[in-house]
Amino acid sequence: MTSQCRARRQLLQFLAASPFLSPLAAVASGLQASTSPLEDLITSPEQALNVFDFEAVARQRLPPAHFGYMATGVDDDATVRANRDGFNRFQLRVRRLIDVRQIDTSVSLFGVTWPTPIVLAPIGSQRAFHADGELAAARAAKTGKHLQMLSTQTSTSVEDVIRERGEPVWYQLYPTDQWTVTRALVQRAQSAGCPALALTVDLQGGSNRETATRARRRDTRDCLSCHKPVQGATGSSGMGSALPDGKPMFAGLDMSQVRSLQAAGADWDYARRLRDSTTMKFLIKGIVTREDAELAVEHGIDGVIVSNHGGRGEESARGTIESLVEVVEGTKGRIPVIVDGGFRRGTDIFKAMALGASAIMVGRPYIWGLSAFGQPGVEAVLDIMRREFRVVMRQAGTIRVSDINRSHLVDRQIGK
What we know:
The chain has helices at residues 3-17, 22-28, 52-61, 64-71, 78-85, 133-144, 158-165, 179-192, 210-217, 268-276, 290-298, 320-331, 346-354, 364-373, 375-396; strands at 90-92, 107-109, 112-114, 118-120, 149-150, 170-173, 196-200, 281-285, 303-306, 337-340, 359-362, 409-411. By secondary structure, it is α/β, with parallel strands linked by helices.
């Protein structure tokens, strides 16, 4: 290595480690860099122009390990980027001279009408981002009348979240590798009043989250200071970091034989068995192909969620908005199709609805808001996305969600 190259590397390492240049440090670790200088950070939710303003504040306020856990993808984070880049594949075709004074953004899922297609995606360990965690998100969902889905790895029990939300939430299931534990989790969600259960299937192969690992190396805190052992759980899982501590949904369960949150041997027969074990509506979260969408319908699944776990499931380098196209073709309108991954703008929501989505899930943006300002931050993020969606509906001449269809898009890949 030449002296010039060595000096350049040393300079880059110094800049990446500088607390005053955290965007550069983020780029070096694979995270998306903030475009806001420190002096331009918003100091209240009302100052935000878009959801990205909250990301910059969250990056500044969160410990490195916690921000890294939220922001990470797998391997080179290519799928995280693809989830955003995929929206650029589609252009909008807008209509004119339509009375757009009254806009109806409501959608229906399993016979229930929601005033917005924006659903809060399941994200675990939300107390890592704010002391109120899932409870703050639930109160914000209540204010905006949003559907909320709760993670198995929630840091607050499903019963407490439902109490704050004021009505039942949907429940996302990590089944574990022990059927008795799986069944207990399902029964608890059902007893709590959850009307729908979503089995996550996009992590069965595990994931190599390099960005999260690099972020943890920069964090010198004692992890046990905020990740307490599960209260009431019996036995030791022997899993180390594979099963995070402090998760109330595992309280009272014998975890001694559990080695994974996933059921690596799960197949369609497993999904059918799980579906038959509950009266809740049963969805599969992680479907990204036409073939699997067709199989979901054949096996009596009530709905699918197009998801790559926010780019954390596999390094396919394919955005979920692109996967949505073939999944909708596979279901042929017979079951609801929800999609998550990379939603940041009202135009993103519009494109998904035009491609046939029944609703969309937003994840990282509301966690940015939570990290930055707690409940008011979540409320502001959701309000911005609702407002932007209404604006693009007016711009496109669509007065109700059902008016949004494929004719409003141009696919750059095929030119129509």
